[in-house]
Write a structure and sequence with these properties.
Length: 212
């Protein structure tokens, strides 16, 4: 008589991560499409340089947004290593985050074209604020509200991860307000904030060993 095999039907995060990687990669790629090749009637070096100068703000906005999206991806990658299974709520928290990341190329093209217009700078800051908020809501659910996080992650570390996400929401939120005081204050915030999240926090277990 053959023994019955048991199957583990616990939903993993594999498909969430694959879908997220695809959306984030496409969003990062779309950024460069906002920079159009200038039409040249004169191919002299001076003419080429003169045609490129107006594109500098667009290249800067592209670079800042590309790094910002990469920071989202790196932190998302490390974040999911601390999750042992998925559920329906996690799917939608993650979809909410991906929605705001997908909007970044649009506001990047806008701010690259009009970098000194307060309402446009504020709109860019609003999108990044909502992206940071989406990450905060997902972290709060995973670490404090659900049972899908790895059980080896101590409560102190869980709370630290959630508090770390609050900082992004707060500072990006300030950038929305400072855009109407002086847009360049907000532009500085957009450049500085990715450095804070450049290296993701290491989530440790009770024995202070990495769980990933």
């Amino acid at each position: 008589m053959s023994a019955h095999k048991t199957h583990d039907h616990t939903p993993t995060t594999n498909r969430i991560e694959l879908f997220s990687d695809a959306v984030i990669a496409i969003s990062a790629t779309l950024l460069i499409l906002e920079i159009k090749i200038p039409a040249l009637s004169n191919l002299s070096n001076d003419a080429v340089i003169q045609s490129l100068l107006p594109l500098i703000p667009k290249f800067i906005s592209f670079a800042v947004s590309f790094v910002t999206i990469c920071v989202f991806w790196v932190n998302h990658h490390h974040f999911f290593h601390a999750i042992r299974r998925s559920d329906r709520a996690l799917l939608w928290y993650n979809n909410h985050l991906l929605f705001w990341i997908a909007v970044i190329p649009f506001v990047t093209g806008f701010i690259g074209e009009y970098p000194s217009q307060p309402i446009i700078v504020a709109l860019y800051g609003f999108v990044l604020t909502m992206g940071a908020l989406a990450f905060l809501l997902m972290a709060n659910y995973v670490f404090l509200k659900s049972k899908i996080a790895d059980e080896h992650v101590p409560i102190k570390t869980r709370r630290k991860e959630v508090k770390r996400s609050v900082i992004g929401v707060f500072v990006y939120g300030i950038s929305v307000l400072t855009a109407f005081i002086h847009p360049y204050i907000s532009l500085i915030i957009f450049i500085v904030i990715p450095f804070y999240y450049f290296l993701p926090e290491t989530i440790l277990n009770d024995t202070e060993e990495e769980i990933y």
